């Protein structure tokens, strides 16, 4: 695994996602309580930034058409999206968020 620093934990707002670039890939960092998750920052339906949407109950919602994705699995939980988004391992160290974009947790390759 090759973790790279994505942001500070306190930069990830509650109820929103933070869009960052890690290893040349756009990633959305979302928070559910004290847990942090990383997904490819591109809706599989409309190809817009998921980081512009809201985060609630471990899901991220696309701002354009309302597709929802589970932050843990990347699977769509609300239409119109039917394809999952890539999810990545996250490690928190000394108040910073590290993401490994070379490894996908769900086997989905970022487009």
TrEMBL record:
- InterPro entries listed in its UniProt record: Rieske_2Fe-2S (IPR017941), Rieske_2Fe-2S_sf (IPR036922)
Reading the lineage from the top rank, the first entry is Bacteria
- Please provide the record's keywords in A-Z order: 2Fe-2S, Iron, Iron-sulfur, Metal-binding
UniProt domain Rieske: residue ranges = 4-99
Q: Give a Pfam family name.
A: Rieske
Keyword check for Transport, yes or no: no
Q: What is this protein called?
A: Non-heme iron oxygenase ferredoxin subunit
């Amino acid at each position: 695994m090759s973790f790279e620093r994505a942001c500070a934990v306190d930069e990830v707002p509650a109820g929103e996602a933070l869009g960052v670039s890690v290893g040349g890939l756009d990633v959305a960092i979302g928070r559910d309580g004290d847990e942090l998750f990383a997904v490819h920052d591109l809706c599989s339906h409309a190809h817009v930034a998921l980081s512009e949407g809201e985060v609630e109950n471990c899901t991220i919602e696309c701002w354009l058409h309302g597709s929802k994705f589970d932050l843990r699995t990347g699977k769509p939980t609300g239409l119109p999206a039917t394809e999952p988004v890539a999810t990545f391992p996250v490690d928190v160290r000394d108040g910073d968020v590290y993401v490994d974009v070379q490894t996908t947790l769900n086997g989905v390759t970022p487009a």
